[in-house]
Design a protein that fits this description.
Its main location: membrane. It is built from 10 helices and no strands. The protein has 237 residues and is mainly α.
Length: 237
Amino acid sequence: MSSGMVISSIALAISLIISGIKFIDWISHSDPRVVMRMGRLGLLIVAVASVPGLMTLLALQNWTGAMLLGAAMLLALVVVKWRMLLPRARFRPMWVEGEMPAEVRPYYQPPVPDAELARRAAIVLQDYIAHASRHDAIARNSSDEIEADGGPMSAEEARAVLGLADGANAAEVRKAHRRLMQLVHPDRGGTDYLAMKINRAKDALLRKSATAAGAAGARATRAAKSPRTTHAGKAGG
């Protein structure tokens, strides 16, 4: 083998390696949809470009080569339109207005909503509707409206917003707040007013719980320091 042939082979191998690296880098940093589109287009071009070769093989009566090339062309076309081989799934609507058609009823299985979450969401929604009836949309979204509505919230109203009973502890308050915020958070389709209302209800109940705990601690301290308790302790000694 001559030195020129060796150098040409080495140069070809290096160029193929570099081209492969660039191709892999393009695939890893490109949109998958673009990669799939380019792949289908490449297969289609190869299939169309193989038609003259197929005609040549048939003219030369090379039946084995013609059969292999024809099978490869058909396989390329199948890969391009592979979705046509799969049965299409029937459309299943998420909800149906009015009476449900008979052909849709076997495929429609509505999810069972959480009754507790639905009740709390209804309470907050009623409060929001009452608020919206008093103010128009522009005033409701302005900063002045938010400041005007930022007054202290009563414990009864806070418990109604969070759906809690009287005497709920801090852990129950935080749990109810977290579950309700998952329904009405602005990022999930809710509004800033609903999120603000729930946050105020949580703050009001936690503040009341902290105040009650502090008062109970103060009473316990005073009871421990009272003369009757001290005298009882000495008598017991």
